[in-house]
């Protein structure tokens, strides 16, 4: 049988244990709440704050892909020139290519593990590097050809499966964005396709010929 002294020691031990656990539980709750707030902020984050014409369905669809890639929105004013190509193929890996240009151009390209028309998955390939002077010159030359460009399709195209070619360009207070569906081979979109394919080529990702659409 335990004496009063032993019972007092045990009682104090359990009281200390409960107090310690209480601190951990409180800390865990704070951490969990913080994570939930961060997650909610990301879910509601507008990844295209300058693109007022983008319809709500595409805004959420495209944002989900950029969210999975850990991308930041392109917001005005920008301190440097920004190019971002988002390539969403229905059944193949989404690819996001972002280039920030100041005195040098820095490329950050990501390929996700999912599919552009479905769940984006997670980042499975990434390439970050400084472009050579030759690459930077070629990129800006292609971009200048797109200055003020307005897409006028050869014919009205309505498609189901295919790919969204989404290109954004921002500098200072100026922002331009285009969203074309599988424009490859279309004469009216040659300039646009040249720019997007060049950005893809800069990633050094392996592209199987039959999957470029």
Which strand order do you get reading across the main beta sheet?
4-3-2-1-5-6
| Anisotropy-based shape | globular
* Cα-to-Cα separation, first versus last residue: 82 Å
> Quick check: average pLDDT?
84
Draw up the topology in text.
Layout: H1 4-44, H2 56-68, E1 81-89, E2 95-101, E3 105-112, E4 123-130, H3 133-145, E5 163-171, E6 174-181, H4 190-202
Antiparallel strand pairs: 1-2, 1-5, 2-3, 3-4, 5-6
Helix pairs in contact: 3-4
Descriptive overview:
- A six-stranded antiparallel β-sheet has the order 4-3-2-1-5-6, sandwiched between helices.
- By secondary structure, the protein is α+β, with helices and mostly antiparallel strands.
- The chain is built from four helices and six strands, in the order H-H-E-E-E-E-H-E-E-H.
- Helix 3 runs antiparallel to helix 4.
- It has two domains: 44 residues; 158 residues, Mago nashi protein (2-Layer Sandwich), CATH 3.30.1560.
- The termini are far apart.
Structure summary:
With about 210 residues, the chain is of the alpha+beta class.
Labels describing this entry:
single chain, 213 residues, alpha+beta, Mago nashi protein, 2 domains, 6-stranded antiparallel β-sheet, 4 helices
